[in-house]
C-alpha cells in the first residue's frame, strides 16, 4: 500500500478539477493511487497548482511533488510579496527541490561509486564469483537514480498568474478576445530537442545538435530539462552521445513567466502533461493545432458535463478512447504505463464555486447542497450567418493564429444568458420553453463594425 502523500490534505481550490493516473492501455485507467498533482488555496487567497510527469517510475516524482509543495507553501507567499519576489520564490523552489533530490540519493550515489571501483579492481577469480551480484546491484541503483519528473507550477497571487516549468509539461491560458473568440495561449516553453534555443545551449556545450535532433534523446530521456534523473546530470559522461559536453547538458533551471494580470477575459487555465497532448498529436497529426484541439475538447465537455469536478476525467477518457481506436486501426502498439494528468482551473468560463470548504482530492464529489450543474449557454453555433461568426471567420482567414506566440482561436459564441443543464429533468414532449436567445452580442458587433467601417453592405 502506497503511503498517502501529505499534499492530499492541503486545502483544495474548489474551482479546479483534476484527473491524474497511470494509463494502462486496455486496463484500469482510474487508479486513485497515482495522483501526481496538487491544487491548493492558502489562507490569504493565493492558489498553487502543479503537475508532475514521472520519468522511469513514480517514486522520484512523488518525492519531487511533495518537496515542491514544501518549498512553495512553508511559508506560503505573502500578499506583500512583490512580483519579482514571487518569481525568485518559484526559481529558488526548483533549485531547492533539485538539491533535496540529490541529497536524498547521496547514499546510493556513494554506493554506486564504490561498486564500480570494486568491479575495476577484481581479479579473474573474484570476477567469476562477484561480478553478477555487483552488476545486478548497479543496475538496481541506476534504476533509482534515473527517476525524475518534468514539472509545471502555476501560482495565482494578488490576481496575477505566475508559471514555471521544466520539460514538456504545459500551461495554457484560455481567454476571449473582443469578438468572443476563445484564444489559447501557451505560457510555458517545451524543453525538447525541437526547441532551437535549447539546441543552441547544447551546441555551446560542444555537442553535435544535428545528431541529437535526429536521435531525439539526451542520454536516457528525450527532454532537455527536468528535476531528478541524476544519471543524465552528475553521471552524464557515461552516455556516448552527451559524454563530451563541457557541462551537464540536462538542467533543472525553470522558465518563469509572469506576472500575467487575470482580467475578466481570462476564462480558464489548463495544466497538462505531455502524455496527454502528444496523444492528440499522434491521432490528429498537426502539432501546431494541439493546444487548440485540447481546448476544444475541454469546452465540449464543459457543455456536456453537469458536474464540474468530472470534466478533466471525461476529457482524458475521450482522448484515451480516440487514441486506443487509432492504435488498433493502424496496428500500433502504444507505450505502456504512460502517466497522464490534466488540471483545469476555472476563472469565469463557468460561475465560480465558493471557497468555503475543502474537498478530498481522491474523492472530489460535491455535497448535496452544492451546485451540481454547470451553468452556461448550451447553444453552440459553428459558422452561422450571424455577424459575430462572420467576424470570427475573418479572424481565422486573416492569419491571426500566430504560431510563434502559440495562440489559437476557437469559436465560443456564448450569450450573456446562462441556463442550468441537468440530466434529472423529465422530458415533456408538449411543453413549451421560453425564448432564450439574446441578440445583444449581435447589436454590439454591428455597432463596432459600423464604427470601424467594416459593416457588410447587406446589413443596414
UniProtKB/TrEMBL annotation:
This is (apollo) hypothetical protein. Transmembrane segments: none annotated. GO terms for molecular function: protein serine/threonine phosphatase activity. Pfam families: PP2C. Residues 398-425 are annotated as: Disordered. Residues 18-345 form the PPM-type phosphatase domain. It comes from the Eukaryota. Residues 398-422 have a biased composition (Polar residues). InterPro entries: PP2C, PPM-type_phosphatase-like_dom.
